[in-house]
Amino acid sequence: MKAFLKRKNIEISLKRYGIDALGAMAQGLFCSLLIGTIIDTLGKQLSIGFLTQTVATISGKDYTVGGMASAMSGPAMAAAIGYALKCPPLVLFSMITVGFAANALGGAGGPLAVLFIAIISAEFGKAVSKETKVDILVTPLVTIGVGMFLSWLIAPPVGKAAMAVGNLIMWATELQPFLMGILVSVLVGMALTLPISSAAICAAFGLAGLAGGAAVAGCCAQMIGFAVISFRENKVGGLVSQGLGTSMLQMGNIVRNPRVWIAPTAASAITGPIATCVFRLEMNGPPVSSGMGTCGLVGPLGVYTGWVNDVASGAKQAVTGTDWLGLVLVCLVLPALLSFLIHILVRKAGWVKDGDLKLGS
């Protein structure tokens, strides 16, 4: 069996499923749901007719350009997972159908259903791939068959369970904004820096509202924090690559000296409750944006998208100056200032020295 799994490149491990597949799923979400939302927002705010008009009507539902992109989130996630699992072509292409079914039947918790079902379907597809003379029939049939069966069997309960957990977190944050602001901000922020996908986690649990705002705060604190405290070693290149890219670049340094993580994490513990208690910062845009931080400024853009949607629906009268002040302080100014000041104390304590934050070292 071990020889067979090795020959089929089926690796049952936490890294393959919990890091590679989860990270790829976030990329699939980014290239569909998130990009679609950004396109719709740009069209509405800049009054670009082509981006706001209906380009297709399917089963009575109208779609804009951005709406079409967002509608493909299920197939995009499954195909991305298949790519991360190194699926052969016939399996990879079959994942499109699997992703659509799992996401549709999973409801609001579809992303988590897609993760589980896509992984299982892909591995079954890989197991039978090129094992018969009619591979072009067998491989898609097995991959899609397994995916469809699992979508029917487990996608609805998995989706409901994911939303129940997400709703519990959001309810707890509304009930205890200070404590939950700290907890959500720190945990999601740390997940952003670890080699797992905070964006996929937020999407899977539908993390939005006040809890989503805390998640945004934590992610921004990690990215901006590391960018600022490592500026001495990494200059402008490091500032951009971490501040607008990912703080995951620091993982090697964190493994060598975990104390370099103190300043950004402490900053997230402070900005989280400021977001929830002081500014009532909410993420009412796509939940995936809650776990993106300042990567391409997706986190702040998601908050802004939520404002636009709330104003359009009448849930919010207007975007106020306080809204903008809170967004800028929580996402940019406070993470930079707090991380800088805390890191000074860490350095004076002798816990971090020159070169500990150098990228590529």
Can you walk through the features of this model?
- This protein has 361 residues and is mostly helical.
- It folds into two domains: 2-158, no CATH class; 176-348, no CATH class.
- It is 73% helix and 2% strand.
- It contains 17 helices and two strands.
- It has helices at 2-7, 14-45, 49-52, 65-71, 73-84, 89-106, 110-128, 135-153, 155-175, 177-193, 198-204, 209-229, 231-245, 251-256, 262-278, 298-313, 321-348; strands at 56-58, 61-63.
- A two-stranded antiparallel sheet has the order 1-2.
- The longest helix is centred in the first third of the chain and has 32 residues, at 14-45.
- The model has no long low-confidence stretch (mean pLDDT 93).
Secondary-structure element pattern, one letter each: HHHEEHHHHHHHHHHHHHH
Task: Characterize the largest beta sheet: strand count, sense, and whether it forms a barrel.
Answer: 2 strands, antiparallel
Q: What is the rounded distance between the termini?
A: 40 Å
Q: What ranges have pLDDT less than 50 throughout 5 or more consecutive residues?
A: none
How large, in whole angstroms, is the Cα Rg? Answer: 21 Å
Tally of contiguous helical segments: 17
Give the number of DSSP strands.
2
Oligomer: single chain
Structural class: mainly alpha
Gross morphology = globular
Q: Strand fraction band?
A: under 5%
